[in-house]
Write a structure and sequence with these properties.
alpha+beta; six-stranded mixed β-sheet
Length: 157
């Protein structure tokens, strides 16, 4: 998560978060707006900027698109991520197989993958949708995410 602050009408000044996956900020934010993505992870060596009850502005290309609230946050080892958490994270097809493959690829590219690595695991809830255009496109993003996940997993098999 990246932290800056932005003022959101009705919420005041909130810290900002964006999903750093290259080229996927809008897609992942759309999954949040669609109610599919309700969790995220980041490298456990980084700091933890959040706590239950905190509100965050979800950002895409410098604009706030949604407000989320942290429900839980804690650390787990990569190998300890289970099917329930993978489904809550809501990426790809929601399966643990996809979660492991995609996140291993992501952390390998970052030069930090190890099955024993610590991850910060945050669960959140959607509080408000601020970008109606992205909300209207959310179903298309979900469909594209599922199609890309099927191709990704087929290519690994």
């Amino acid at each position: 998560m990246d932290e800056d602050r932005v003022e959101i009408a009705g919420f005041g000044v909130l810290p900002c978060c964006s999903y750093r996956s290259e080229g996927l900020q809008e897609r992942l934010a759309a999954l949040v707006i669609a109610g599919r993505k309700r969790a995220t992870v980041w490298d456990g060596r980084e700091g933890n900027p959040t706590a239950p009850g905190m509100l965050w502005a979800v950002m895409v290309a410098g604009r706030a698109v949604a407000v989320i609230e942290t429900v839980t946050v804690g650390r787990r080892r990569f190998r300890e991520i289970d099917a329930a958490f993978a489904a809550t994270e809501g990426e790809g097809d929601g399966s643990l197989d996809f979660w492991r493959a995609a996140h291993e690829d992501y952390f390998r590219k970052a030069g930090s993958f190890d099955p024993e690595m610590w991850l910060w695991c945050e669960e959140f809830r959607l509080v408000a949708v601020l970008d109606q255009g992205l909300a209207a496109a959310a179903a298309a993003h979900v469909a594209a995410e599922e199609a890309e996940a099927a191709a990704f997993l087929a290519g690994r098999g």
